[in-house]
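Hi all, long-time lurker, first post. I run a small reading group and we've been trying to get comfortable going from sequence to structure in the token notation. Rather than ask abstract questions, I figured I'd post a concrete chain and ask someone more experienced to write out its structure so we can walk through it together at our next meeting. Sequence below, copied exactly:
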Amino acid sequence: MDKFVIFYDDRKNSCINCAEKFGQYENVECRKISDYQDQSLVYATGARVGLIFESENGKLPYGVSHIIWKIVADKNRNHMILITGGSRELKAARAAVSDLDERGYHILNLYTRYVMEKNKITPEEAVEWILKDIETEKPKRMKERVKEKYQGMSRRELRKELRRELKEYREYQKKQIKIRKQKLS
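-- Answer (accepted) --
Happy to help. Here is the structure in token form:
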């Protein structure tokens, strides 16, 4: 596997745990985002880049957006984003991809906590799964599942299925909010 540099948000426990699991593999280098707050350029040339962060109400944390705008990496390689939770993680994913796209970086691998939990993938399995996808440069497992699931459906059935998926996602978000409130009290 090629060299892989991961920038992670070291303020969140979920990001730290995930980075520790990635760090156990060879050719994977994990870097704290806070170490690069005051630097004008962040170099990660000759490697694929990964970002691990938690969504902040649909927005990117400041450290992540700083890395995105200051990073110098290979533009002909595919990079990765892993969102470990937070509210409105899909909106944050869209923001990160569009910011990186503006800079000329291509994101081939995008993962969210919701998708991992929905497919019953444990955090240990997720790291292996992500690294294998990055190595082959074809994140086809998820795409194949989706294609098989929706293939042959009429438009009406597809619309109903997508509405049901959206409803499940909203219920998941409400459940996560309740869990967070219980932890705080």
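A couple of things your group might point at:
The chain has a mean pLDDT of 84.
Residues 152-185 form one domain.
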